[in-house]
Amino acid sequence: MTSKVRYLFYGIIVFLVISIAVVFGLRPQAVNLVYMTDAKYLPYMMVSLNSAIKNKSAESKYHIHVIGKDLDEEDISSLKTMETQNVSIDVYRSREYDLDYKHLGRFESFKVSLQKIFIADYLPYLNKVLYLDADTLVQEDLSEVYDINISDKYAAAVRDGLMYQFPEHIKEINLTDRDFYFNSGVMLLNLDKIRRDDIIQRAVIYFNTHNEVFGDQDVLNMVFGKEVESLSYKYNCNSVFFEEKDADFLSNFFKESVPQTPREVYDQAVILHFAGHKPWTPWFTHSYLKPLWYSYTKEIPIKYQQML
């Protein structure tokens, strides 16, 4: 085969591959995002979802999975209006699981969050998802964090400031000697491994046999053990931590360089998380974060804007 014929042959092969991709609509893997909400919290979840859609790359494809409690047909229809050409939204009715909620004790308000334990059950056909709490804002495309390899881990997540804020609680659940306690508000989850190792059953047993459980977060920290990949704080940037501690302290805590001012931190964050004070409350007066959050409220359905 002469060089000219060989190049022609390779050119035909490349042309055929591209043509097949076009014909069958082959695209990069969708980013599967999961939210959980009840009817009361739905408007706030919509704000987070709007920020994720607004700041995605044009070529990225998102598949949104909303696990909802007490959502009516209008709520579901309203969520569907937020779909775009590359964003699809599916809603799943929340279920009641066999959990002894009295074990929450002083953390009773975290009841709804326990649904996180069962994400692998809700989505049996997916092998990986990125979970986001409803009180988040997404400022960049999420493909990069979604593509992180966690094939040998249960999850990837960010260290939680509870480690230094409430060391007595970390001691109560026997995690003092472990160098990593993660925040469950943003998690990249390996659903295949969670199912394969029967993590849901282990989580239910742990929850039902321990008192004063800090919602799903304590449970997941315990049952995932050390099989968690550490993410940069940029993927779960909790405003409380960066207002209370200086850059040197936080750089040491997160084990990476942190900008000198909170504003620089927030500007560079991929995901902001209002895990403490909420920007929609009257007592939240942050001159930058409050108007930033409200800027994303203007594009959710009118009915839900009026509920904020």
Supply the key terms:
308 residues; alpha/beta; Spore Coat Polysaccharide Biosynthesis Protein SpsA, Chain A; 10 strands; 38% helix
The name of the CATH architecture is Alpha-Beta Complex
- Ranges where pLDDT stays below 50 over 5 or more residues in a row are 4-8, 14-27
Helix-strand sequence: HEHEHEHEEHEHHEHHHEEHHHEHH
Structural class: alpha/beta
Quick check: average pLDDT?
88
CATH class: Alpha Beta
Terminus-to-terminus distance: 71 Å
CATH superfamily: Spore Coat Polysaccharide Biosynthesis Protein SpsA, Chain A
If you had to describe this structure to a student in words, what would you say it looks like?
This protein is α/β, with parallel strands linked by helices and 308 residues long. The protein has one domain (27-305): Spore Coat Polysaccharide Biosynthesis Protein SpsA, Chain A (Alpha-Beta Complex). It has helices at residues 3-23, 42-54, 73-80, 119-122, 143-146, 162-165, 167-172, 191-196, 199-208, 215-224, 239-244, 247-254, 262-268, 289-295, 302-305; strands at residues 31-38, 62-69, 87-93, 128-132, 136-138, 155-159, 182-190, 228-230, 237-238, 271-273. The protein has a 7-stranded mixed beta sheet with strand order 3-2-1-4-7-6-8, with helices on both faces. The chain has a 3-stranded mixed beta sheet with strand order 5-10-9. α9 crosses α10. It is globular, with a radius of gyration of 21 Å. The termini are far apart.
